[in-house]
Amino acid sequence: MAHEKASGSILKQPIAVWAIAFACVVSFMGIGLVDPILPAIAEATHATATQTEMLFTTYLLITGVMMFFTSWLSSRIGAKKTLLIGLALIIVFAALAGASGTVGQIIGLRAGWGLGNALFISTALASIVGAAAGGAANAIILYEAALGLGLAVGPLVGGLLGEISWRGPFFGTAALMAIGFIAIITMLRGPQVKPTPTPLSAPFKGLGRPGLAIMAATALFYNMGFFVLLAWTPFALQAIGVASAMQLGYIFFGWGVAVAVTSVFVAPMLTARMRRTTVLIVIIPLLAVVLLLAALFHTSVVALVVLVIIGGLFLGILNTVLTECSMEATDLPRPVASSAYSGVRFVGGAIAPPLASTLAGHFGTTAAPFWYGVIVLVVATLIVIFGRRWLGRADGAEEHRDEVAEAIGVGDAD
Fold it and tell me: Domain Major facilitator superfamily (MFS) profile: where (predicted)?
């Protein structure tokens, strides 16, 4: 099952929990924040679509690479220091991105932003679990709610501030993160439990385990499809007359709400009734159908908007179930498994945006990236089907929520 039974009201939490949850929301906003302003940035900086898509690539690539090392760092300096260092880096690089004058500068600064994001999200849930009332289940629900809210609010804030200036969302994020930084310093008090140090090589060796390797490969191709939908659709909509930052913000706000609802409510319902790998084998192809329809109806505004929202429903389910599968696929320590899995997963997200725009330019149609999304999702499905015999633990292992707190915190944030 996706969630154990929680005890007590989820809303009756120590103030430290709400401080971390607020910072989580703002951190996850950074994923979709630039979505509504991609066309505006391209126009203001005279950048190509491929150059602009690199705003996703550098952010996700650095986040992914650093995921391999964050468990090593946090196990030595502690969760609170890791959280604060991550927040500080996000504040600095988001503000500098807002003050930049060229797309090249913004691309580089988004890489620094990704570093801060990796350090923060790798330890956020572990910290919430340590401070939350009502058990680990309540803490995880709070975290997933923060994830969904951040994904939903990010595009909306990006659209609102982007109507004023494309620089607005960057400065807005820096300001909100500064509030989160102060809140964690003042509200996350008491002794911090320092985990047992893990070897630097542990996540890389972990990928040699068949179960984890299969889940990482699945997530690699799945995340390519994820970011085709998230990062390319704004340009597909721009091509048919929807270029307003506010319009795009509302569309992707709806997408984020869909992700939040299904990740928190629908995924647990499905995994309570069928094997996790069965959920993946059913839902990944349904997401492929969404992208197939987007390719076929790429000239229809109504069709693309509806498909984005429907795609969000499937993405929410897959985010939760993929992470749970990866954590239970082997007997590796959960933080180690999570670092390896999430590192590969974010790299998949980094590859997709510039490749999508390159394909669109090569074939001369905004439909080409959606076809690419269909292909990678079919590959992801085949990996699960043919690798299923090594995923028995993922289907039958009993969840231990206190142990997987940090692990899901890393894996669920893309």
Answer: 16-392
Q: What is the third-level CATH fold of 15-191+199-411?
A: Growth Hormone; Chain: A; (1.20.1250)
DSSP state of 240: T
pTM to 2 decimal places:
0.81
Contact 87, 184 (CB under 8 A): yes
* Token pair 């109806």 in the structure block, residue: 297
Q: Which of 207, 165, 190 is nearest to 338 (CA)?
A: 207
Mean pLDDT of 142-167: 80
Residue 243's φ and ψ, nearest 5 degrees, are -120, -10
Q: How far apart (Å, rounded) are the C-alpha atoms in residues 376 and 152?
A: 25
User: What is the SS3 assignment for 276?
Assistant: helix
Q: Count CB neighbours of 186 within 10 A.
A: 11
Structure tokens given for 206: 């972990």
Q: Is 298 helix (H, G, I), strand (E, B) or coil?
A: coil
pLDDT tens, position by position, 187-233: 776 655 666 777 888 888 889 899 999 999 999 999 999 999 988 99
* Cα 300 from Cα 260, distance rounded (Å): 26
Of the candidates 404, 260, 268, which has an alpha carbon nearest to the alpha carbon of residue 332?
A: 404
What is the crossing angle of helices 49-77 and 334-363, to 10°?
A: 170
Max distance between CA atoms of the chain, in angstroms, equals 59
How many whole angstroms separate alpha carbon 19 and alpha carbon 4?
A: 24
Length of the chain: 414
* Element holding 263 (H helix, E strand): none
Give dist(CA 380, CA 342) in Å, integer: 16
Can you tell me the distance from the alpha carbon of 302 to that of 280, in angstroms, rounded to the nearest whole number? 28
